[in-house]
Design a protein that fits this description.
- With 328 residues, the chain is mainly α.
- It has 3 domains: 88 residues, no CATH class; 72 residues, no CATH class; 96 residues, no CATH class.
- It contains 14 helices and 2 strands; from the N terminus they run H-H-H-H-H-H-H-H-H-H-E-E-H-H-H-H.
- It has a two-stranded antiparallel ribbon with strand order 1-2.
- Strand 1 and strand 2 form a beta hairpin.
- Helix 7 runs antiparallel to helix 8, helix 8 runs antiparallel to helix 9 and helix 11 packs antiparallel against helix 14.
- 5% of the residues are buried.
- The N terminus is likely disordered.
């Protein structure tokens, strides 16, 4: 049948990853009790049997006969291509001067299709993530370089408004990066035709997730569903709860910076961040003089207050996130 379809051998039909996966599935489905030679060579007292239907790999791992199953490097495909090259001359599939490592060194991004063909999807997905991350990190990298130059040429680095703007941008970038990677990964699962081979996909659903059962048009399976309209209401609830928390942190930072002498009337004038009553305490000769050892008390106080805020805000954030009823 392979000859009729124009396939000369299994090397042309199956990739290295496919062959390794088939071998692993065969080993995984092998039952210990059916392996007469293996069964007789292992003493039943030293290696007791637990279940007649126990798999061979499970039995060997339970008794610590083997720890990890790892496929070794295979040169079979390369040898086959090399023989075809020597027999037929020029070949598009084989270049003796090109290897996977040499191809990777010649490109900005890792050749994921070649890695997937040889190592499989579990390894290839890591390099695909690295390529995706490098593309996305170039955006804040370029913005950070521009802001660094502007802070040195135009603004004072200690009072530059671009630093705070960059921090807000990075927070938004992180959320968008995570969201777009999930979409990209889902597309790869379908493109690589291993959507149902990954058991972890089902395990990613949160145990506390509550939703109505609905048919997924992509996977054609029944999955729990929670409407975006209901989740938007939960998002609004989270914003209402979190906003006072941010305001409290902002107020704490302003007060501590006034007491530390970072915010002063001389530097910031009539700005809303200046609190004269607190700033005067950090003035020269005052109780918390910015150049005296007493100012360390304010630093310690700020550290302790920050730890207390972190503990309580983490509880608030966890509670609001659970209320948003995320699926994953």
């Amino acid at each position: 049948m392979l000859r009729e379809e124009g396939v000369d051998d299994l090397y042309s039909l199956l990739s290295e990853a496919d062959r390794v996966r088939i071998c692993y599935q065969l080993l995984l489905q092998t039952k210990f009790e059916k392996q007469i030679k293996t069964k007789n060579s292992l003493d039943a007292k030293t290696y007791p049997r637990m279940d007649p239907q126990e798999g061979l790999l499970d039995f060997l791992k339970r008794h610590k006969i083997y720890q990890e199953l790892t496929p070794l490097h295979s040169r079979s495909r390369m040898v086959q291509k090399m023989l075809n090259f020597k027999i037929n001359g020029k070949s598009k599939d084989y270049n003796p001067d090109e290897t996977l490592s040499s191809l990777a060194m010649k490109r900005w991004f890792t050749p994921v299709p070649l890695i997937r063909e040889y190592y499989g999807e579990e390894i290839a997905i890591y390099f695909e993530w690295m390529n995706f991350f490098l593309r996305w990190i170039s955006i804040p990298g370029a913005c950070g370089l521009i802001i660094c130059i502007l802070n040195r040429v135009v603004f004072d680095p200690s009072t530059s408004p671009l630093s705070g703007l960059f921090a807000i941008m990075m927070a938004c970038w992180g959320a968008l990066f995570s969201l777009n990677w999930r979409k990209h990964e889902a597309g790869l699962r379908i493109q690589w035709d291993n959507l149902f081979q990954s058991e972890r996909r089902l395990e990613q659903i949160r145990e506390d997730f509550v939703g109505t059962t609905k048919l997924n048009p992509v996977t054609e399976t029944n999955e729990p569903y929670y409407s975006s309209k209901d989740r938007m209401l939960r998002y609004l609830e989270s914003v209402i709860i979190i906003t006072p928390c941010f305001a409290l942190v902002f107020a704490m930072l302003i007060c501590c910076n006034n007491l530390n002498g970072i915010i002063t009337v001389e530097k910031h004038g009539d700005s809303f961040v200046v609190i004269p009553m607190l700033a005067d305490l950090a003035a020269p000769g005052a109780l918390f003089d910015a150049d005296s050892d007493m100012n360390y008390i304010i630093t310690v106080f700020q550290v302790v207050l920050t730890l207390i805020f972190n503990i309580n805000f983490r509880r608030v954030a966890t509670w609001t996130t659970d209320r948003e009823n995320h699926k994953y």
